[in-house]
From TrEMBL:
It catalyses: (6S)-NADHX + ADP = AMP + phosphate + NADH + H(+); (6R)-NADHX = (6S)-NADHX; (6R)-NADPHX = (6S)-NADPHX; (6S)-NADPHX + ADP = AMP + phosphate + NADPH + H(+). It comes from Pedobacter xixiisoli. The gene is nnrD. Pfam families: Carb_kinase, YjeF_N. Homotetramer. This is Bifunctional NAD(P)H-hydrate repair enzyme. SUPFAM superfamilies: Ribokinase-like, YjeF N-terminal domain-like. HAMAP family: NADHX_dehydratase (MF_01965), NADHX_epimerase (MF_01966). PANTHER family: ATP-DEPENDENT (S)-NAD(P)H-HYDRATE DEHYDRATASE (PTHR12592:SF0), ATP-DEPENDENT (S)-NAD(P)H-HYDRATE DEHYDRATASE FAMILY MEMBER (PTHR12592). AMP binds at K407, N408, Q409, Y410, T411, G436. GO terms for biological process: metabolite repair; nicotinamide nucleotide metabolic process. CDD domains: YXKO-related.
Length: 499
C-alpha cells in the first residue's frame, strides 16, 4: 500500500527531502522538470509542435520555466513561455529559473501580454500556472486565462495538477479551472484524482517519481492508501503442494430469484474461478436446472433448510446477487444475520437493509458491504458529492465495524480502522450489468480461502479490476462472464511472476 498525502504533507515531504538527501530546492525543481519532460516526450513526440508553457510565479511556475528550457534542449524548437505574472509574491526558485532562461539566450520567447497567447488547434499548452499551492478559488485574471486555455482547441498538459484543481477535499459543483487532457503529477497521485468529479478537470494522469523520500512518505500519518501491485503480490498465496479442495474453503452464496437467476450464476461462477474449494448455491428451486447445466462444479443448497442448518462449515457466506426484494428474502437475510457470522452483503440484500435500517446494527463485525453509489445513498442518505459520500462510508465503517466497498471506477474500500484504500484498477469497459455479482463471487472466494476480511476485499477488488484492465487492452466491452473466465489466468500470472 502506498500512502496518499494531502498538499500540506507533500510540501512537508519536499522540505524533508531537501534537508535530508540533501539537495538544494532548485535542484529538486530541476529533477521535477526533467521527470515531466521525459514523460512528456514519451507521449508527445512531435518536436515540431508549438508549445506554450504558461507559468505562474510560484514553484509550479518555476517548474514550467525549467520545463521550457529542457524541452528546447531536447529539440522542441517552437517553445514559447507565457508569464501569468498576476501576483505580488514570487518564489525564489521561480526567479532563479526565469533568470536562467533569460541569461542562456535560449531563443525562447517570453510573453506577458494575453493578446500574444494565440492558441491553435495542434498547439500544446503546458499548464504551470498554479499547482498544489492553490489556496482559494480561481478568480480575476487567472480565471480569464483558464477560460482562454479551455476554449482553445489546443491540447493541455498540466504540471502536477491543473490550475484551479483542488488536490483534496470537496470538489465544487462548478469547476472554473484549467481542463487538462493529461496531467503529469509528481511522486504521488493527488487524492482527488480518484474522485469521479475530477473528470471535469482531468482526462488522464500519470505519476512520475522525482525522488522524494519514500520512507518518509510512508511514515506520515494518512488514512488514505493506494492499493499497489506489490501489496497484492505479497498478499496472495499460490496453491500449495498436497492441497485439496478442503484447503480452499467452502462458500455459501444466497442469491437469485426466478427472473434474476443469472446474477446468482455469475456470482457462483466467479467464486469458483477465483479458486474456492467448494461453493454451494442457495438459490430458488426454479434455478436448479440452470445451475446443474451451467455450473456442474457448484452444489445446490435448498433454501428451506437455511434456518435449521449449522452454517459453521462455511468459511464465507454472501447474500444479495439477484436476490429480489420481498418478505421471503427479508427472512433469509434475518436468518443469516442471526447466525452471528460475518457476511458479504450485496445488491438486493443492501436494498432490504435500506428498507429496514434497524437491521444495520445486527450485522456481525467484519462483514462486508459492497454498495454502488445508489445503494450506498439508499442506505446512508443522499450525498451531493463523492467526498462527502466517502467520508460517510468511513464513518459508518468505523461505527458498525464493517468493511464498506464503495464501488466506482476507482473503488474506495473503507476499513473499520478508518483507513480508506483506493483501488487503482478497473475501467469503463467494465461498466455493464453483472460486474458487481462477479465481484461478490470473487471476494467470497477469497474469504473462504482463509484471507482475513480486509485482505479478501482488497485482493478481490484489485484483481477484478486488473482482469478487466487486461481484457480491455484489446476489446471495447468487457462482460462479467468474460471477466470471470479470465481470472484463473490473471492469478496464474501473478503467482508465476513471484516465483
Ligand atoms: N520544492 C518544492 O516545493 C517543489 C515544488 N514543486 C512544484 O511546486 C508546486 C507547488 O508550488 P507552490 O507551493 O509555490 O504553489 P503554486 O505554484 O501552486 O502557487 C503559488 C502561489 O499561488 C497563490 N495562489 C494560490 N491559489 C491562488 C488563486 N486561486 N489565485 C491566485 N493565487 C493563488 C499562492 O498564494 C502561492 O503564492 C507543485 O505543484 C509543483 O509543481 C516541484 O517543483 C517539486 C519541488
Amino acid at each position: 500500500m502506498q500512502n496518499l498525502l494531502v498538499s500540506s504533507q507533500i510540501k512537508d515531504v519536499d522540505t524533508y527531502t531537501i534537508q535530508h538527501e540533501p539537495i538544494v530546492s532548485i535542484e529538486l525543481m530541476e529533477r521535477a522538470a526533467l521527470a515531466f519532460v521525459n514523460a512528456f516526450i514519451n507521449r508527445f513526440g512531435d518536436e515540431e509542435a508549438t508549445i506554450w508553457v504558461c507559468c505562474g510565479q510560484g514553484n509550479n511556475g518555476g517548474d514550467g520555466l525549467a520545463i521550457a528550457r529542457l524541452l528546447r534542449k531536447n529539440g522542441y524548437t517552437k517553445v514559447k513561455v507565457f508569464l501569468a505574472n498576476y501576483a505580488q509574491k514570487t518564489s525564489p526558485d521561480y526567479l532563479r529559473n526565469l533568470e536562467r532562461l533569460k541569461q542562456e539566450k535560449s531563443e525562447i520567447p517570453i510573453l506577458e501580454d494575453l493578446q500574444a497567447l494565440k492558441l491553435r488547434q495542434n498547439d500544446i499548452v503546458i499548464d504551470a500556472i498554479l499547482g498544489s499551492g492553490l489556496n482559494k478559488p480561481l478568480s480575476g485574471k487567472y480565471e480569464k486565462l483558464a477560460v482562454l486555455i479551455n476554449t482553445s482547441k489546443s491540447k493541455v498538459v498540466a504540471v502536477d495538477v491543473p490550475t484551479g484543481f483542488k488536490s483534496e477535499g470537496e470538489l465544487d459543483a462548478i469547476y472554473n479551472g484549467v481542463k487538462a487532457d493529461f496531467v503529469i503529477s509528481f511522486q504521488v497521485p493527488k487524492i482527488n484524482f480518484f474522485f469521479p468529479e475530477s473528470i471535469k478537470a482531468i482526462r488522464e494522469f500519470e505519476v512520475v517519481s522525482i525522488g522524494l523520500d519514500e520512507p518518509y512518505i510512508e511514515s506520515l500519518p494518512s488514512q488514505w492508501k493506494l492499493v499497489t501491485e506489490q501489496f497484492i503480490n505479497k498478499t496472495i498465496k499460490p496453491r500449495a503442494r498436497f492441497s485439496h479442495k478442503g484447503t480452499y474453503g467452502h462458500a455459501l452464496i444466497v442469491a437469485g430469484d426466478t427472473e434474476t437467476m443469472g446474477a446468482a450464476l455469475l456470482s457462483v461462477n466467479a467464486c469458483l474461478q477465483a479458486g474456492v474449494g467448494l461453493v454451494s448455491a442457495c438459490i430458488p428451486q426454479s434455478g436448479l436446472t440452470a445451475l446443474n447445466v451451467s455450473l456442474p462444479e457448484a452444489m445446490y443448497f435448498n433454501r428451506e433448510n437455511l434456518s435449521n442448518t449449522d452454517l459453521q462449515k462455511y468459511q464465507a457466506i454472501a447474500i444479495g446477487s439477484g436476490l429480489g426484494i420481498g418478505e421471503t428474502q427479508e427472512q433469509l437475510l434475518e436468518q443469516l444475520l442471526s447466525k452471528n457470522k460475518p457476511l458479504l452483503i450485496d445488491a438486493d440484500a443492501l436494498n432490504i437493509l435500506s428498507e429496514n435500517k434497524e437491521l444495520l446494527k445486527e450485522i456481525p463485525a467484519q462483514s462486508v458491504l459492497t454498495p454502488h453509489m445508489k445503494e450506498f445513498d439508499r442506505l446512508f442518505g443522499h450525498h451531493d458529492n463523492w467526498w462527502n459520500r466517502v467520508e460517510m462510508a468511513k464513518k459508518k465503517a468505523i461505527e458498525l465495524e464493517l468493511i464498506i466497498v464503495l464501488k466506482n471506477q476507482y473503488t474506495f474500500i473503507c476499513l473499520p480502522t478508518g483507513d480508506i484504500c483506493v483501488n487503482p484498477t478497473g475501467n469503463p469497459a467494465m461498466a455493464q450489468g453483472g460486474m458487481g455479482d462477479v465481484l461478490t463471487g470473487i471476494i467470497t472466494s477469497f474469504l473462504a480461502q482463509g484471507y482475513n476480511s480486509s485482505q479478501a476485499v482488497i485482493l478481490g477488488v484489485y484483481l477484478h479490476g486488473k482482469a478487466g484492465d487486461i481484457l480491455a487492452e484489446n476489446r471495447e466491452i468487457v462482460t462479467a462472464s468474460a471477466l470471470a473466465k479470465s481470472l484463473p489466468k490473471v492469478l496464474k500470472n501473478i503467482n508465476s511472476e513471484k516465483s
